[in-house]
Write a structure and sequence with these properties.
By secondary structure, the protein is α+β, with helices and mostly antiparallel strands. It has 10 helices and 9 strands. The strands form 2 sheets. It has a 5-stranded antiparallel beta sheet, sandwiched between helices.
Length: 284
């Protein structure tokens, strides 16, 4: 005859086994989910090991797409390699009237590096146009410089006509090319410092005393573990675009998403792809 105490002990043992089984199932389910290639709406995707450049996943990697403001990654490269961060840039009338500019304006004088910060964190088109004029003399000349640099990096299917990414039939890239450009940019310490920041202040030289608080448009820098950047992009023609990277210990994964369904889906899809990338590297 089984006593009450024995019955209780049996029930507790069974409950313990059930809990262990449930936890194990949940763990295996999460592990399996991370190892399963995510389904994304983005038309083109490139996921790479940023340390080696090895491709971890690709979807339509050579399909031409509008890059939207991912263009500014190349603009930033050109500005940083101009090596004139303290140059005082006056916003021209032409630059000041660039569509969808946000805070820079005609007649304002801003240090070149501060304009770069403003362009990358809040995606200011006016800042991009002003930087192009300062470094290249004009947007057209600057675009030619961008194209030469793209070719030298190995981005063979990319063509730029402006420094900000407003849609143009002759302004295009591919996920593969943009991954090469972004990886190149991420080798620059100043670039990393800007694009991984949640927020930074930009100071105006003229009018003196003006200060702009710039919050990063990339939602991943606030809540994705180890996020190191990089840049958001969106236009009606380009859809949701995102270059994102994250570093954990000695591993860094970088993903390019072009033409995702919406401004929000690009973030959730980037999280899924980055998770998958780390899972792939964990298995090696």
């Amino acid at each position: 005859m089984v006593c009450r105490k024995e019955v209780f002990e049996i029930k507790r043992s069974v409950l313990t086994l059930v809990c262990i089984f449930a936890c194990l199932t949940a763990f295996l389910g999460v592990t399996e989910a991370k190892n399963t290639i995510p389904r994304v709406t983005a038309d083109a995707v490139m996921l790479i090991d940023n340390n080696t450049g090895k491709v971890l996943y690709e979807k339509n990697p050579d399909k031409r797409e509008y890059p939207a403001s991912l263009t500014k990654i190349m603009t930033a490269v050109m500005v940083l390699e101009d090596n004139n961060n303290d140059r005082e840039v006056t916003i021209s009338h032409t630059a000041g009237n660039t569509p969808y500019g946000s805070y820079a304006y005609t007649g304002q004088v801003v240090r070149q590096f501060d304009l770069l910060t403003q362009m990358m964190l809040i995606s200011d088109n006016v800042a991009a146009a002003a930087l192009a004029e300062a470094v290249g003399g004009s947007e057209r000349n600057f675009a030619e410089m961008m194209n030469k640099k793209a070719l030298s990096i190995g981005a063979m299917n990319t063509h730029f006509v402006n420094p900000h990414g407003l849609s143009d039939l002759n302004h295009y890239t591919t996920a593969r090319d943009m991954a090469k450009i972004a990886r190149y940019a991420m080798h620059k310490d100043l670039f990393r410092r800007i694009v991984s920041s949640q927020s930074l202040y930009v100071n105006s030289i003229y009018p003196e005393g003006e200060q702009l608080f710039c919050e990063n448009t990339n939602e991943l820098v606030y809540d994705y573990e180890g996020c190191t950047g990089i840049k958001t992009g969106w236009t009606r023609a380009a859809g949701g675009c995102l270059a994102a990277a994250a570093k954990r210990q000695d591993r860094e994964v970088l993903v390019i998403l072009l033409h995702s369904d919406s401004m929000e889906s690009r973030f959730s899809e980037a999280v899924s792809m980055l998770d998958y990338g780390f899972a792939v590297l964990d298995k090696k």
